[in-house]
Design a protein that fits this description.
This is Acetone carboxylase. The chain is an alpha+beta fold and about 70 residues long. The chain has two helices and three strands.
């Protein structure tokens, strides 16, 4: 049986099943064009650690609030 929470967008942190609250837009300039954006979703707890991971590599471009009505999945 599939629970409704199993279908809700979840945090991209390894092993985290919390609901997504943030969208972290990023790209790797060595392999992506400047206008391309990839997205990780983050819960409140993992927003900083996922953002720091991307920022340390100079991949992080933008962090914006996520709402399920955005239609974005991870």
């Amino acid at each position: 049986m599939v629970e409704e929470t199993d279908l809700a967008p979840q945090c991209s942190a390894k092993g985290c099943r919390a609901a997504a609250s943030w969208r972290l837009h990023w790209n790797n300039p060595k392999i992506h064009t400047p206008d391309r954006r990839k997205t990780w979703l983050a819960c409140d707890e993992h927003r900083t650690t996922l953002g720091s991971f991307l920022d340390a590599r100079r991949f992080l471009r933008e962090v914006v609030p996520f709402t399920p009505s955005d239609g974005t999945t991870h």
